[in-house]
Amino acid sequence: MYLLLIKQFFRSKAVLLNFTVLMLLGILSIYIGKQFLDQKQTAVTKTIDLQKKHIDTQTQLHNDDLGLLLYYLKFSFVKPLKPLAGISIGQSDINSNIQNVTILNLEGQKYDTDLINPMRLQVGNLDLSFVIIFIFPLVIIALMFNLYSEEIEKGTWRMITIQCRSPFIFLLKKLTVRLVFIFVILTFLFIIAKLLLKIPFNFDFIYLISTSYLYLIFWFCLSFFIVSLKKKSNTNAMLLLTSWLLLVVFLPVLVNNYIKTKYPVDEAFTMTIKQRDAYHKKWDTNKKETLDKFYKHYPQFTKYGIKEEGFSWLWYYAMQQMGDDESKQERDAMYEKIKKREQLSTKIAQFFPPLQTQLFMNNLTNTSLTQQVEFLKATSKFHENKRLRFYPKIFEDNNTNSIDWTKQKTVFFKAENTFDVFRSMLYTILIIFSLISLIFYKKSEIGK
Question: What confidence score (pLDDT) does residue 24 get?
Answer without folding.
Answer: 95
